Amino acid sequence: MKNVTDSFVSLGHWPPAGSFGLNTDILATNPINLSVVLGVLIFFGKGVLSDLLDNRKQRILNTIRNSEELRGGAVEQLEKARARLRKVEMEAEQFRVNGYSEIEQEKRNLINSTSKTLEQLENYKNETIHFEQQRAINQVRHRVFQQALRGALGTLNSCLNNELHLRTISANIGMFGSMKEITD
């Protein structure tokens, strides 16, 4: 502590004017040098420092202003994107609903057309079966008629002799003659 007070006491002892000396006492010279340097810096550096601070302040304000403008643009784009998203979601829902209703309609149409086609095929099948039955019946009738005719002709040829033949012809002529008299 004594060294500190001695250094302040030694401030009163300046070397005589005309002589230049170097004071090696650190505690005595340091606060003086610092105060002189700070005084010179404050006096001369005040303008430079205020200019630097003003420039820095302007850059910060410009950056904040630009950030606010960018944020405003981003908010606007976000709102537009949200509106587009809502619109697209509504359209997608509408397509989904319409798609389901169209699918159901197509399903009903397909079922109806298939049902009609099956009904027509059933009718064609029944008509074909009926036609084939009629044709088979007609063929059987024709064969039966031919066989009966052959059998009758065979029986007539085997049983009919000349005398029976002449009597049958005479009887038929007689029937025609009596029919002619009745009509006259």
UniProtKB/TrEMBL annotation:
InterPro entries: ATP_synth_b/b'su_bac/chlpt. Residues 71-127 form a coiled coil. The keyword Signal does not apply. GO terms for cellular component: chloroplast thylakoid membrane; proton-transporting ATP synthase complex. Keywords: ATP synthesis, CF(0), Chloroplast, Coiled coil, Hydrogen ion transport, Ion transport, Membrane, Plastid, Thylakoid, Transmembrane, Transmembrane helix, Transport. It is a single-pass membrane protein. Pfam families: ATP-synt_B. The chain crosses the membrane at residues 32-49. Its main location: membrane. GO terms for molecular function: proton-transporting ATP synthase activity, rotational mechanism. It is found in: Membrane; Plastid, Chloroplast thylakoid membrane. It comes from the Eukaryota. PANTHER family: ATP SYNTHASE SUBUNIT B, CHLOROPLASTIC (PTHR34264). In plastids the F-type ATPase is also known as CF(1)CF(0). F-type ATPases have 2 components, F(1) - the catalytic core - and F(0) - the membrane proton channel. F(1) has five subunits: alpha(3), beta(3), gamma(1), delta(1), epsilon(1). F(0) has four main subunits: a(1), b(1), b'(1) and c(10-14). The alpha and beta chains form an alternating ring which encloses part of the gamma chain. F(1) is attached to F(0) by a central stalk formed by the gamma and epsilon chains, while a peripheral stalk is formed by the delta, b and b' chains. HAMAP family: ATP_synth_b_bprime (MF_01398). Belongs to the ATPase B chain family. Component of the F(0) channel, it forms part of the peripheral stalk, linking F(1) to F(0). This is ATP synthase subunit b, chloroplastic. It comes from Callisthene erythroclada.
